[in-house]
Amino acid sequence: MEYDQLTQFEEINVDVDPKADIDVTVICGTYNQYNYIRKALDSIVTQQANCSFELLIYDDSSTDGTSDIVREFALNYPSIVRAFIAKKNTYSDPLRVEARKEWRRCFVRGKYIATIEGDDYWIDPYKIQKQWRALEKHPECDMCACRASVVHEEDTQEVQEIRPQIGDGIISIENVILGGGQYLATAGLFYRCSMTEKIMEFENVLSLDYVKQIKGALRGGIYYIDDKMVAYRRFAKGSWTSNMMSDKNKLHEQWRKEKRMLTVLDEETGGKYHEAISERMKAYLTFEEQLGERKDELINLLASLRGTVFLWGMGRRGVDFEDFCMSEKITLTGVCDKAYKSDGITTERGNKIFTPEQVLGMADNILASNAVVYQYLKDKFVGNLVNLQEYMPYG
User: Fold this and answer.
1) Which residues contact 376 (CB under 8 A, 6 or more apart)?
2) CB burial readout 288-304, b (16+ within 10 A) else e
3) Which of 344, 383, 393, 395 has a 20 to 30 A CA-CA distance from 94?
4) In DSSP terms, which residues pair with 54 in a beta bridge?
């Protein structure tokens, strides 16, 4: 199909040499991200690198002023930025993925591709240089990734890290399969354009960063740089993750497709990674199901706690545990999450929100929603600390 079959585009700086030698093409997709897009684009055009790079922007017909910022950058950086502003939004079109693939095929000129969403940003001005150099030195790898900072959606407050290992080195395909889609940050992915030339069957099941990460690891693993080079906004308004988290039916349908993708991958690779795939399949047990399997044990544990009891961490595990407490009529003193900016209000389930400082000062018991929170609190809290990920290990 043609790249403009679904919609026409306002194209800026597109009429340039299509065969020019470019080392790196950065692809940025955006839609209605007015509050974030300027920071994202600025972090790209100010990169310092010995290699050549360009920025391709795909604006899916934004209505909030995002398109004006895209135009501004295209006009101010004509030698770097090529912009495509869609006349019509195509998010719900079933042919959207194919049209985007054709768009990339037509306009990507780089030997390597770097990706970033319009609500994320880079925090290292040498990111392109470091990742380009890494893959030039490691021809056995098709993809490079880096350490990432997870920040609150409205500011630069770090609430978590995405750090799959300590130290530079190659991450195996098995660990990528086991890690799932949030194992690596999208804004930190950097890969060979040649990796996209042959489409495998498992890639046709669905289009996800998780699929791209698996493809990038198949030949020789993913080269990982343990430098914090990108920032991922947690649950930014309108983001794919935020939309999925707010609708459990959508999330479970997504899991069904991921399981199908892994099944096809297992078949296509002749069972070479069957053990890792089988273990990963357990991750699609919902947290509710995992809590249900250990319901009596959990109720007895919670009944034995004396004094104040706080839940710390309101990601998927935290929210589902809050649901569990509500259904079992278990009372929490309150909840806490580093991403929450104010105290005194309540969650949707009626639990009062406290600041981290308040909880550390008044808690007798803290229920850490996952292993990351547990490790963070180990040296900060002297009371009774429970790791809820032991009761919800898969996810």
Assistant:
1) 368
2) eebbeeeeeebeeebee
3) 395
4) 25
